[in-house]
Amino acid sequence: MVLPSPESDVVNAPSEHGDNRSVQTLDPRNSPKTTRDVLQIKPRGSVASTGGTYDLQPVNSNSSYPGEPPRFDPGYWTPTVLSSINWLPMSKSMSYDNMNQISPVPLLPSPNYNHATSTGLDNISQIHRVESLGTPPTMSSNTESTGRRSTWSGEYYVDGDAGRLPRIKRQKIIARRPSELRSPEFGWRLVWAPPMTSESPVGPHFAEFEYEAMHSAFLILCVNCAPVTAPFVSGDFPSLEAFDYLIHLFFKHVHQSLPFVHRPTFNPDHEGRWILLLSMASISCWFLEDEFAVEFAESLLEFLRRVTLFCDSSNGWQRTFTNCRHAQIVLLLLLSASASKHESVKMWSDRCVGELCYLVNSSICRSYPKGQYERAGMPPSAEWLVWSEDEQTRRTAFLVWQIGFLRFMQNADGRPPVTLDSIASIRLPCTDAMFEAQDAETWQELEARSSRATFLEALQNLYIDKKLLPEIGDFSHILLIYGVVQRTREVQDHVQQPLSRFEPSAEKQRSSEMNIQPVWAPSVPIYMKWRNSACDCLDILHWQANAAIGMAAGLEPAKVMHLHFARILMLVPLDHLLGLARMINIPFASSADTGKSSPEETEMKRAVQRWAISDQYKARLAAIHAGVTFWHVRRYSTNAHYEPFAVLGATLTLWALSTFSPRLHTMDQSPRLAETQETDACEIILIDRPTDDELVQQFVRDGLKMRVHMTGVDDLWAPAAPYRVLREGKKLLARLGAWSGETERAITLLDGLMMARFREV
């Protein structure tokens, strides 16, 4: 299938800013040594709407491409999954008149349809020349001639205007402009000064002796280090005030998603604290908006890498910090490396994963944090200090598990580095109010009524009792969300093993007669029960989150993002979608370059198409949460480390559903639709906006009968929709400027899909 492009297939097309942007490839090893050449990094293969028309040329079904894969056997599909429904007319209030010229066609042959001109995934028949879709007319913001104020000038209705301002406005996230990138080999320099701001830094500060220790390490490892390693091009070192500002940025931007540092008791008495502060400063650099912020972030990351390597070496400094502190440092180093644009830096991040796995599995999880009985008889101040160390250890172990699981899902390789069994017996983290208590007396009052349930007990209560334990905080809710997802994944891996179908008996059997073909998990009843139960668990957590949204006057907390993302991880074959996108981006080897699909690529297309058709109800449920993921990131983004992966997963979900879902002819099915349609059924859904549960369930059951609209895409079932979904995903990823490395890799995958031509499976 030719992914329709309302723009064109020209790579060097005019951008939205009016300039001609082309693909630029940067080899960091070839950067100049002497001058600061500002390199404008452009998105690969970026195209923008021209507002004109486009041609979708039909591809001859008898194409003579060499090695064309065979058509997919219709008997492979369940006959009942393709509902005979019709297209509904477009709403008169929308300016989509030209879409009436398009006759959507099924993506593969089926006995349920009369295919006079059937097509496959790569062939489109009888596509008309279509005007580019316009956007609905917007209301003028000018005031009326009567002299009244703007209709949105009042915060309350009592102001007397026609309406009031919305409680929560769309958050403006501006992507950091392309900054100077220098070679890691020749361009490392720590030249940066904090901006002049009236905002007073909050959080811990570097002590004078900690700053001196860090400066001494810099001189040893980065200046006077030849010939062991390449020295930095400059011996300049940021001031103490600069590092304090970076720590302030950590607690402003990072602490919400990585809440493992107990600020009230985080003082210079902790051994090795300066290395942890350095790692906190390193990850905060990615949130700077300075012109040379990326260069400074890459250089500080390299300094941190050398510090951690020297601490681990036999002739390095003797490590005096605990395993918990060590795990925190490596965890921040891992996330900083994932934000880097240089593949050479990202490659050794795998070493960080292995080190974290060892620290958590062999040390932290085995030494269960001290319980209340071990703190009996202590004065409140001493008891508070002991508890804070235990709480930070618990939170660090849970974060290592959560981030390791997300990396496992993103890479679709191997197994999660930390299993559920490793953390099952650890007590859940405390509430946010208890963790942020500023003194021992306040903490003691909150600790008396805190929950002491373990992670396994909370999961069992959620699955079996269908209720959420009281007195647990948002961080614990997020952990339970991923616990449900990983448990579902474990069941999926179990049922997909060929040996799982073997029924032991006393009779001798032949292994050669055993069916060793891979199992499609949704066809196994026990997996379906576990997955449906997991959906119920997430609904319970979502109801609680909706109550929190109401209490916050509509502001969505971060756990709402995790709830939407969890449905995508659990209901969508992301491993196949990511594998397909990566395979298409292999230079000179994908179907986009060779004109034919490899067996692996064909198999991935079949798996995705089977999901979109045979598992269509859960696919549409996942699409609902994918659309609302766009809504959340557009308005409530915190630029957290998981957001690029969440946006990428949501984009691929909507793209796959739009590309591989069956499309039905309008004229053939209209009488039957008129007989079966309910009188009170809604005909349209805005998939990237929150909606009521009744409409969600209607879309899950009868989504193909509805018009599905999305910002910047219009109708999700239109032939041009897959391309536009990818375009909207790229726009949203470009706004997440803090994790430039992750976002650029995700944009590269989407670029490959936008340029690819899908051949019939």
TrEMBL record:
Residues 247-463 form the Xylanolytic transcriptional activator regulatory domain. InterPro entries: XnlR_reg_dom. Pfam families: Fungal_trans. Residues 1-71 are annotated as: Disordered. Residues 21-33, 47-65 have a biased composition (Polar residues). Keywords: Metal-binding, Nucleus, Transcription, Transcription regulation, Zinc. The keyword Hydrolase does not apply. This is Xylanolytic transcriptional activator regulatory domain-containing protein. It comes from Lithohypha guttulata.
